[in-house]
Design goal:
Elements lengths: L2 H4 L1 H6 L7 E3 L3 E4 L7 E3 L7 H4 L8 E5 L9 E14 L13 E2 L5 H14 L15 E5 L2 E12 L2 E9 L8 H15 L3 E7 L3 H10 L1 E14 L2
Parallel strand pairs: 9-10
Antiparallel strand pairs: 1-2, 2-3, 4-11, 5-10, 5-11, 6-7, 7-8, 8-9
């Protein structure tokens, strides 16, 4: 079953989340407006010829598990590695007194506030429609969104915890962690297995997730690439 995690974006885009995807038998992407992520049936030998017709010139995408030659028509923007982590802890306690609100993916103001916070804090690939991919919980200061955590990729039973971020002016209160606990609790009660990604360079977040109850499943290559002439 853990083989799903070895190529999680492909299994999400070709399985439970195929209705959010565009592409063909060997290559898919989240549709425009969602998180700009590519998935390939063979992650180590991605079929860029198949996915190119579904990508516009200038679009940037994240691509995991691949470190080969950059194909013609594409440009490398950045590359690094990230940890893929899986939950191994106890179920978090319920916190009914913590006033989190679910973001409404069909509410334009919610979607725009989530996008603005993601652009400010850069928790990973994010789009205006990303909050349609799962449950996104948020903490507000009056009407201002200041912290959120949600769900992105899903290949049953594995569901990703993603979009975890806090506005710089509101950090240190533990709100994002408490939002994560609510997400993780819901997933575990639904017999899902939480997992997440964190960049290797983000030592503070990696250490926090280890303390919370995640363990490292693997370290994998991740690239940002752009379709060009």
């Amino acid at each position: 079953m853990t083989q799903l995690l070895d190529n999680i974006f492909w299994h999400s885009l070709s399985g439970a989340q195929v209705h959010f995807a565009e592409g063909e038998a060997s290559a898919r992407r989240y549709a425009k407006g969602f998180s700009p992520i590519l998935g390939f049936a063979d992650a180590q030998h991605p079929d860029f010829q198949a996915i190119t017709p579904y990508c516009e010139l200038g679009e940037q995408f994240y691509c995991a598990g691949w470190s080969g030659t950059i194909p013609s028509g594409w440009q490398l923007v950045a590359e690094s590695t990230m940890y893929r982590m899986v939950w191994d802890g106890e179920i978090p306690p319920d916190e009914p007194e913590f006033q989190a609100r679910r973001l409404d993916p069909f509410n334009q103001q919610d979607a725009e506030q989530a996008m603005a916070l993601a652009q400010l804090t850069n928790p990973g690939p994010f789009g205006l429609r990303t909050i349609e991919l799962g449950e996104y919980l948020a903490y507000f200061d009056n009407t201002k969104l200041v912290a959120m955590a949600g769900e992105r990729s899903f290949a049953p039973p594995y569901r990703e915890v993603s979009g975890v971020c806090t506005h710089p002016n509101y950090q240190g209160q533990g709100w994002a962690k408490r939002l994560m606990h609510k997400i993780i609790r819901r997933q575990l009660l639904a017999n899902e297995i939480p997992f997440l990604h964190v960049m290797r360079s983000n030592d503070a977040a990696h250490a926090l997730y280890l303390r919370m109850g995640f363990h490292d499943y693997c370290e994998t290559a991740v690239r940002v690439i752009r379709r060009c002439e």
